[in-house]
Amino acid sequence: MTTYKLNNLNLSKFEEQAAIPKYNRSNIKTGIVHVGIGGFHRAHEAFYTDQLLHDETVTDWGICGVALLDFDIKIYNTLKEQNGLYTLVVKELDGSLSKRIIGSIVECLYAPENPSAVIEKMASPEVKIITLTITEGGYNYNEATGEFDFDNPLIQHDLENPKAPKTIFGYLTQALKLRKENGLKGLTVQSCDNIQGNGDMTKKMLLSYIEKAEPELVPWMEANVSFPNAMVDRITPATSQADILNLIETTGIDDAWPVVCEPFKQWIIEDDFISGRPAWEKVGVQFVEDVVPFEKMKLQLLNAGHSVLGILGALMGYDTIDEAANNNDVNRFLRDYMRQEVAPILSDLNGVDLEAYEASLLERFGNIYIKDQIDRICSESSAKFPIFVLPTVNAQLKQEGHFEHAAFVVAAWAIYSLGVDETGKALLVKDAMKSTLKEKAIASKNNPVAFLEIEAIFGALKDSQSFVDSYVTAYHNITKYGVEKCILNINGNILNHI
Ligand code: CS2
């Protein structure tokens, strides 16, 4: 098959192989600046927006993708060479692949190379929304203090070099300042990250930074910037070399970085866009008054479910989430965790059928075509556990309820952090707190509570005797018997007797 590089010039050649943008991309103006152009954004917001741009009356909502970090140079270069185009490959439930070339990213900027271009773009009159996928750790929240972490050297750098920032907080502050100076309207900053109250969190963290960096900007920000909360959902594994080759071989589309994802997608947003928004509801986005219960449900069931499968699966020697989810004992462990520990603490979900949601999650996790990497799921667990798993534990502790499964997973994580699985294979621990995790994991061999001493993750959990008891028992049992044998027993409720 003849292959062609994916770019504007060759786009029409792919019409038979994939759905392609039917709108005139050169007519589309940038109305959204998106920071963090990884797979999640490209499988989600950029996809929804591409769908909307097919309505020919919509020309104001193109996306400018911003690569914020040094190592984002690769995605920036790829998108630049491909004129912002990429292929979204949906791995359907029957194993077939649906391919769609997405055209909604109409500009790209690489922040480290040209910080002022990013600030100016964010401050330009046509931009009405700044959206973010900067990962859970990107919000600079300290679990122990509950506050913004001013000790972060990058934040120190931004305070000292306001015109050449490195963090999102430095960029947003300068952009808002410029908007104010230019007498422009405000805009919406919308987080698309997996964080409870992601809009509230963004506001709180940004406010802390601005109070220190540009205190006189605070009242303007309060009056002119909105921060809707949102729940964003689509499982998007890391693109593998096999995905890239398969796309070229089956379609001739030579795309250096396609995105692969599951068919399921969901985006629920609070309708609080101070300077207007795209009519995303026309392409399936739900707008609600209060998204908090939906976020809780997703974070504590789906994302926590991922962490459960990831950490247990990694220790058991699995590589992908479906392998772990299709092990009957792990599957039952996860079901029991969701039923006994998470479901009781979720508040009123406005008519959502929780059991059906849980069942759909187990089906999504078990999808053998997705091949979501356990390494991806376990990466940055130090930022994920406080959001995905520990709120359940804390809520259960308050009502003297169940947390044995969660305690078991935390113990498994302590053992995982030693960096070797139960078959003796090295584990790829990728985490901003890797060295602390390792140090505490080693100390935990003699005294398992050492791991819980990482306050920035666990807060005061080590002071809860009942959690510590459950965790320590699990730690010793996993070390002695291995995960599989323990979960057989935990499922039979006789964990303490083996
Ligand atoms: C995952 C998420 O990062 C993780 O640990 O749980 O990336 C998850 O796949 C998405 O939130 C799905 O919407």
TrEMBL record:
It comes from the Bacteria. Residues 290-478 form the Mannitol dehydrogenase C-terminal domain. InterPro entries: 6-PGluconate_DH-like_C_sf (IPR008927), 6PGD_dom2 (IPR013328), Mannitol_DH (IPR000669), Mannitol_DH/Oxidoreductase (IPR050988), Mannitol_DH_C (IPR013118), Mannitol_DH_CS (IPR023027), Mannitol_DH_N (IPR013131), NAD(P)-bd_dom_sf (IPR036291). It is an enzyme of class 1 (oxidoreductase). GO terms for molecular function: oxidoreductase activity. PROSITE patterns: MANNITOL_DHGENASE. Keywords: NAD, Oxidoreductase. Its EC number is 1.1.1.-. This is Mannitol dehydrogenase family protein. Residues 31-282 form the Mannitol dehydrogenase N-terminal domain. PANTHER family: MANNITOL DEHYDROGENASE 2-RELATED, MANNITOL DEHYDROGENASE DSF1-RELATED.
